[in-house]
User: Which sequence fits this backbone?
């Protein structure tokens, strides 16, 4: 009777401290890349602003529907990073490329549909209730945004693929180059330098689209023509309905969740506008600071998704669980430090935005509340990312619906208007909504991981 061969023991899971450090290393280039995309928007806005207040109004009114569609597209693509990381963790490398190819098809279809919608231009803005003069100028901007929309989603999908296999630096480097293209094209097209026509706001959007085409050509070219990428099956052919179904099952709820959050913030911005020019200007400053700091959380969240998904691909639920909590601890430490810095440096932050004697004191109060908001914003951002690594996409949508629309918006209306707390009431209401989202998502993560461990 022959004895059974010795059982192979799985490699020991890394320690909690090591997982925090590993997530941090992966998070840095992702933060850099996401911040670079914000810089592109800032540069285009700055160039258009120099062309005059009217052009800036055209640019702003057209950016809103473009950003909403882009957010939905990003949410739809989030499953790409999950499936890629899970496949790599399971050492089924060819499935990484398969997921990427299917994501490109879905992304292109969504991008073309979005471009068609933006191509309606003036008609779309009129339907959205904008006055004729703004709709006319904003419509021209929408036409230029439509040129880049099909490929904008493809860049997101490919970036998530590279992050899923642990190569985020490629996307970060391409974003840097894209910023240079954006600066050059905006300089040429907004102001009409080197003999080109001055297109104003439309030129800023066209410059943005030109940068997007460059970035997609660069990142897709890297994946297709780099020999080391071939082991991931990127040159395969055909797709799979099963993979497409999994991508959509993860991405669609995430897109809805992002839409719920974005719509909440937009609604509260409307409440701020009803309070007057100074409160809404201060709200805009606070919102911009919150968005910039959130890029740190996005980097940590993306790294958390990759580590949890790779561990799940290996079948190591305990390691995946520790990765989720490690990302949570890391983001609280980082955003807590940033929050302290914002509190101490509020005058410097506000001074970078405005020197208006009436606006400054209101903005200082808003930044003080924002310092508290960045912590809970980071917490919910990483917790939803950890759940994404477990392919749990539907429950965050429910949590967001409750946190932002059953708690956030009604409390903001009550605090800002009925109780007369003004802008401070609105911002603390958003803090409450973000805190509810953090607690709800963390509780859900605890339930999911306990079930998986005991299964």
Assistant:
């Amino acid at each position: 009777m022959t004895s059974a061969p010795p059982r192979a023991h799985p490699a020991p899971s890394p320690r909690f401290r090591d997982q925090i450090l590993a997530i941090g290393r992966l998070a840095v280039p992702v933060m850099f890349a996401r911040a670079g995309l914000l810089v592109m928007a800032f540069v285009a806005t700055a160039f258009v602003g120099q062309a005059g207040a009217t052009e800036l109004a055209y640019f702003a009114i057209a950016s809103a529907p473009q950003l909403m569609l882009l957010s939905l597209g990003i949410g739809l693509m989030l499953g790409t990073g999950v499936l890629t990381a899970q496949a790599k963790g399971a050492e089924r490398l060819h499935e990484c490329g398969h997921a990427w190819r299917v994501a490109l098809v879905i992304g292109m279809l969504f991008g073309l549909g979005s471009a068609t919608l933006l191509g309606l231009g003036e008609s779309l803005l009129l339907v959205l209730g904008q006055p004729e003069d703004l709709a006319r100028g904003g419509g021209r901007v929408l036409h230029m945004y439509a040129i880049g929309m099909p490929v904008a989603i493809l860049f997101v999908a490919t970036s998530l693929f590279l992050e899923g296999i642990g190569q985020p630096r490629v996307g970060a480097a391409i974003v840097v180059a894209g910023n240079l293209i954006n600066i050059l094209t905006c300089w040429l097209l907004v102001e009409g330098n080197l003999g080109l026509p001055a297109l104003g706001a439309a030129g800023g959007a066209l410059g943005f689209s030109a940068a997007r085409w460059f970035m997609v050509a660069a990142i897709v070219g890297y994946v297709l023509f780099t020999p080391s990428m071939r082991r991931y099956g990127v040159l395969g052919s055909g797709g799979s309905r099963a993979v497409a179904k999994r991508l959509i099952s993860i991405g669609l709820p995430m897109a809805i969740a992002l839409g719920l959050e974005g719509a909440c913030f937009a609604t509260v911005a409307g409440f701020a506008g009803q309070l007057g020019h100074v409160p809404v200007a201060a709200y805009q400053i606070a919102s911009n600071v919150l968005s910039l700091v959130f890029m740190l959380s996005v980097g940590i969240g993306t790294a958390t998704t990759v580590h949890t998904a790779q561990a799940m691909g290996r079948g190591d639920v305990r390691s995946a669980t520790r990765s989720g909590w490690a990302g949570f601890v890391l983001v609280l430490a980082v955003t807590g430090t940033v929050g302290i810095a914002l509190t101490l440096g509020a005058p410097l932050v506000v001074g970078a935005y405005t020197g208006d004697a009436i606006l400054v004191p209101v903005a200082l109060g808003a930044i003080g509340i924002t310092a508290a908001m960045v912590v809970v914003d980071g917490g919910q951002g990483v917790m939803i990312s950890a759940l994404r690594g477990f392919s749990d996409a539907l429950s965050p949508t429910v949590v967001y619906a409750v946190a932002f629309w059953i708690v956030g918006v009604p409390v903001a209306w009550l605090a800002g208007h009925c109780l007369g707390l003004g802008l401070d009431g609105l911002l603390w209401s958003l803090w409450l909504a973000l805190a509810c989202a953090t607690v709800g998502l963390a509780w859900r993560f605890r339930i999911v991981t306990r079930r998986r461990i005991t299964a």
About this structure: The two ends are 34 Å apart (CA to CA).
